[in-house]
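Hi L., both proteins are below.
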Amino acid sequence: MFVVKNVSMKLMIIKVRWIFINLNYAIFRSEPIFTLNDLAQIGSHNKREKKAYNSNPDINKNLSKNNIELVPLTDKYVKGFYNLTKEYKKEHDERMKTEREDRKKTFKQMLDKSRNVVADELLFTATSEFFDNMTIDDIKEWANTCMEFVYEDLGYKKEQVLHSVIHLDEKTPHIHCVVVPLVRKFDNRTKTERYTISKKQYIKDNIHLSELQDKYHKRLIDKGYDLERGIKGSDRKHIKIKDYKNINRKLEQNLNTRNERLDKAMNKLEAQMKTSKTIPFDKKHIVVEKDTFDTMNRVIIETKKVKELQPKIEQVFNDINSYVNSYNSLDKENKKYQRAIKSLKTRNSNLIIENNKLRDYINAILKAIKTFFRKLLQIGNEVTKETVTSEIKDYYDNNDFNQDDVYDIANNTSKEDELFDYVGINYNDGYDISNDDELSL
C-alpha cells in the first residue's frame, strides 16, 4: 500500500503547483517581401546557401541535407522570380518605350520603388512538442495539409509558388512557402487587363488574416491533428487575461479527467487488496488474481500519464514566475515614469497646438498646388502638361506627394497612365493602392 499512498502524494503536489499545461498550437504567419534584394536574402536563407549561420545558432548545417523541398527551385530566388513574372516585365518594358528618357525605370526599379510587395513568405509550424515522435512521412503529411491550405483556402495557383521547403535542421520543423501574388486586373477605364503584384488579392487585412488562421486551424483539425488555434492577437506584447482564463479552464478539465481516472484505478486496487485472499508466494514467484493484476497495471499506466506531465508543469510554472516578475518590474518602472509623462504632456500640449496649425497651413498650400496642377492637366496645352507632369514626378520623388495625391491630380486626365505607372498605382475599378503591412498571428 506504500506505493499507492506515494502516488496520491505526487498527485496532491501536482494539483497544488498546477497552473496550465503547454498546448500544441497551430501557427501560420504571413510576412511581406518588399524588394528584390530582400527576396534574394530570404532565398539564401531558405535554401541554406550560406556556409555558416553564426547569427542563428538553432541551424545545424549537418542536418540541412534532411530539409525537404515541397515546391523545388533550382535557380536563385531572384532568377526564379523573373521567370515567374516574365510577362509582367514584358508589359512594363513595352510601356517604358513611350516614357521620357529621364523618367524611364527598369522593371526592378519599378518594383522596388512601388509600395506593393514583390512576394509574400508564408510560415507554417507548431509548438515543438507537436512534432515529438513524428516520422519523416508524418511531417510530410502535415506539410501537405499546409500546402492544401495555400492552394484551396488562400487561393494561390501552383505556378505562383516560387519555392516551398520544410526545414528540419532547426529545433522545430517549419515550412517556408514563398509566393508571388501576380495577378491580372481588369481596368474599367481602358477596358484592358494589366499585370500587377497585389498581396491584398489574397490577404486583404488583419481581420481577413485572422479568418484565414481560423480556416487553417479547422483544416488541421479535420485531418485529425490535435492542435489548438493560436491565440488571436498573440503578436501583441501580452495575452489578455480572458484568454489566460480560457486556457486555464480547459487545461484544468484535462487534468481533472486524468486525476479522476487514476483515483478510480487506485480505489479499485485498494478495495481488491482488502478483499484478496492470502497470496501464496515463494522466493521467485507471487500469485495474484487476474482482476487485481489488471487493476495494478491500470494504476501503473495512469500514474505514468500523470508523471509525464511533471516536466511540462515545471517549465510552465517557471515561465509564469518569469512573467509575474516581468509584470512587477514593468509596473514599478511605469509608476516611475508616470510623473515625468504627466509633465511632458503638459509641456507638449502647446507644441501640439502649434504643430496642428502649421500642418493645416502646409496642407492648405499643398491642396492649392494639387488643384492648380490638376487644372493645368485638364485645360493646358501639351507643353504645359509635360511641364506639370515633370513637376508632379519631382514632388513625388521628394515625398511631397504620395500615391493618393497623384491619383487626385491625374485621375481622368491625359497624363493618367504615365503618372499612375510612375508611382506604382494599380488598376482595380479605377484605383487600387496596396499597402501591405506585416501579418502574423
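That was the first. Here is the second:
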Amino acid sequence: MLAKALRQQGHNVFTVGIEDSFDAVIHHPFTTAQLLRRIAETGFHADVLFYCDNGNMPLLLDPQYVPLPSIWYSIDTYCNPWHIPYGHAFDLVLVAQKDFVRLFVDEGIQSHWFPLFSPTPYSVSAAEKLTRDIPVSFVGTLGHKNNPDRKPFLKAFRERHPLFVHSGAFMPVFARSHIVLNQSAFSEVNFRCFEAISCGAALLTERCNNGLEELFVPGEEILPPYTRCDAAGAAAIAAQALANPQRLKEIAKAGLAALHARHTDSIRAAMLISLFSHLLASRTHENRLSCELERRDTLVRGAFGILASDLDSPQLTAHRNFYARLATQR
C-alpha cells in the first residue's frame, strides 16, 4: 500500500502478500519463522515490520514473535472484530477510522489514528484533458453482505436524479465526473472519498464521524454531506451543486488541493517512518518479546476464535476449521 512512496523516499522495502505484484507471493498463512526465512533467502535485511490489513483473513499467525518493531494497520475494523485482540501482538496499531481507535486503546493497545489517503500517481493532469460528461457517478461493489443499504440507496437516488453506476476501474469514470457519490458500509471515510477527489471530482458523501470534517471541510473542499440512506437529500444536494457549475468546480479544486497538501501516500509514508523511528529508538519490541508473551498468545488465539465464528459460509468451512484449530491449540 505504501511501498512505492517509501521507496521514493529512499527506503528499501520488501513486500509479502497474495498478489503477483508483491516481492514474495504467498498462498496460505505463515508463521513468523517462515516469514523471516523467506525474507532471509532473498538477502534482504529487515529493520521493521509493517502489516497492512488487506481485507482478508490474517496471513501472519504469530506476529507477537516478530523480533522487530512492528505496526499493524487496521482498515476494515468495523466488520472484523478479530482485529482488536490481534492488535495485542504488535508494538503499535494504526487505525484508519478515527472512531475505532478507542476500541484498541480501551484494551490497553498503543494506537493512533492513521487516515486513508490517495496514492500520488492518481494524476489529475491527464484526467483534466477528458470531458467531464458524467454529472454524478458511483463506482463500487454492489450487493456485498457487509453493506445491504447500498443497492436500495443507489436505486432510490437514481429515481430522483441521473446516476452512472459502474463496478470496476474507478479512474476512467471519476475523471469524467463532476460529482462522485459515495456510500459506505458503516459510515466510514473509505478509499472512495480520496479516489474521487484525486480525480478532480467533487465528493458527495454521507454525514459521518470518523474524522471526516477534520480531513475535508464540508461545503468548501467537499459537498455538504447527506444523511445516511437519505437518497432524496443526496439527490437534492447533487442537483443544487450542478446548477452552479462554477461553485462546483471551486469545491472540486479546493478538495484536490487539500488532498495533495494533507492526504497523499507520500505524506502517510513520512508519518509511518516517524512512528517507526520512535519504536526503534525506544526498543519497544524488546519489551514485547520479554514479557506477557503468554497473554499475547492467548489474545491472538482469541482473535482466531472470533474470526472462525464469523466464517459461516459453507464455502469457507476449511478456513473456519483452520482458524478454530489455531484458537484452541497451545
